[in-house]
């Protein structure tokens, strides 16, 4: 789908520059998704080697953020983009900030999984946390997919998915609180899980941010801080 | 201090536009600081009216974010800024994202304070939380001050201040964990404080982000994701 001719400039080099940025955002997104998957897997399977890999790989996410930011500044300075191109650059600058922070959350989950000691009670919540992890990973994936295809309606649909993440979050929180009350000695350990679940919830929020940038990119309307009803009107009309 | 002539353009209107954006960022920063002060005060003094005010005022922070973003896009489209001006716009776009999220954290603290029920044990941590709140407020203030004065060295100094916030964070966390283990019935209540302390810690992180943008703005070097030593070399040399 084309937005006011993104990628159809007389300058072939300019086209390539824009395309390169989009490719790099997808690359960064793919890496962040992998980090997230591995962090949750390391926790579920008590795999400290995998956790170490997640921690060691975070610098790659950070490097991509700096690199893409720099390319955006170069394009702003040299190409003086307007309309859809300018919105693309704005959306990229904001998207990569959220992707980098999702990477940070994944790294945090990796670090927590290293300290984590399972007991039978706590173990029983791991499948629910794994499920929540898959759900937010799918959200991140769909948000980036909507970005790649510049599909505002898909972005809106993914945005709505965060409600379900919040529900899972609350359910797991209640369960963890019960464990702490039943067995106070488990508190330090359960708190690590609590932070993990909170990190996943925040990743869901960040995926909705990316969805909002996609809607802005495609429709030229800032849909942050408005109600779900207003958003539907803006995007589906 | 002037950076490559920011505010010294032949077009008076362009000067005014840049100045207007800087003024609005400071206004947004002032509002966010106030939100933070009031949220922590509402918690400390069990003042539900003040908490409601914080919650009700968040939309003003959000509006300013959208407004400033829009002005940045307008300037990018019409003025095609280069060098220092372009870095200013980039720094503003990123700074207001962090300011808005600090506002969100303040709102969250406000909401938590509404549910919060004090008992003597828990009450005894409030002064420490209040102290941590003041410290992160000062960090936000100093970061914005460095932004207003375009002072990279001040930004670096504030950036270092986050270590102290992290220390206070860990101290309070240990104390809260002890309370939970001693009195498991207090767990739901203590968890609210735990989220508050975590929110304050995150606000400190966001203040360091703003410091990094100021260093980028003034020095033209991206100082994210590098070590403290490297950062000192970049800024003080």
Give an overview of the whole structure.
- The structure is a homodimer of 237-residue chains.
- Chain A is mainly α and 237 residues long.
- The first copy, chain A, has a single domain, classed as Methane Monooxygenase Hydroxylase, Chain G, domain 1, CATH 1.20.58.
- Chain A contains nine helices and no strands.
- The first copy, chain A, has helices at residues 12-44, 48-79, 83-115, 120-123, 126-149, 152-160, 162-182, 187-219, 228-236.
- Chain A starts with 11 loop residues before the first helix and ends with a helix.
- The mean pLDDT of chain A is 93.
- Chains A and B meet through α2, α3, α7 and α8 of A and α2, α3, α7 and α8 of B.
Brief synopsis:
2 copies of one chain form a homodimer. With 237 residues, chain A is mainly alpha-helical. Helices cover 84% and strands 0% of the residues of chain A.
- CATH-scheme architecture of chain A: Up-down Bundle
Instruction: From the alpha carbons, calculate the radius of gyration of chain A and give it in angstroms.
Output: 20 Å
Helix content of chain A: over 70%
Strand content of chain A: under 5%
Number of strands of chain A: 0
Q: Given the structure, what is the number of helices of chain A?
A: 9
CATH topology of chain A: Methane Monooxygenase Hydroxylase, Chain G, domain 1
CATH class of chain A: Mainly Alpha
Q: What structural class do you assign from the helix and strand content of chain A?
A: mainly alpha
Average pLDDT of chain A works out at 93
Shape of chain A: globular
Report how far the terminal alpha carbons of chain A are from each other.
Answer: 18 Å
């Amino acid at each position: 789908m084309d937005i006011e001719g993104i990628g159809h400039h007389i300058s072939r080099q300019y086209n390539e520059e824009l395309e390169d940025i989009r490719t790099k955002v997808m690359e960064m997104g793919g890496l962040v998704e992998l980090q997230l998957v591995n962090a949750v897997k390391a926790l579920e399977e008590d795999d400290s080697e995998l956790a170490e890999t997640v921690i060691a790989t975070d610098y790659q996410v950070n490097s991509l953020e700096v690199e893409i930011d720099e390319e955006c500044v170069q394009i702003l300075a040299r190409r003086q983009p307007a309309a859809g191109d300018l919105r693309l650059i704005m959306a990229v600058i904001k998207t990569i900030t959220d992707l980098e922070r999702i990477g940070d959350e994944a790294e945090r989950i990796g670090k927590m999984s290293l300290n984590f000691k399972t007991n039978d009670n706590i173990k029983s919540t791991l499948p629910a946390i794994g499920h929540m992890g898959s759900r937010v990973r799918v959200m991140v994936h769909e948000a980036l997919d909507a970005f790649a295809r510049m599909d505002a309606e898909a972005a809106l649909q993914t945005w709505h998915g965060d409600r379900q993440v919040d529900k899972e979050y609350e359910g797991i929180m209640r369960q963890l609180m019960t464990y702490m009350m039943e067995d106070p000695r488990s508190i330090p350990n359960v708190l690590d899980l609590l932070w993990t679940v909170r990190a996943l919830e925040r990743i869901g929020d960040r995926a909705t941010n990316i969805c909002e940038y996609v809607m802005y990119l495609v429709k030229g309307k800032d849909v942050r801080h408005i109600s779900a009803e207003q958003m539907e009107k803006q995007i589906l009309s």
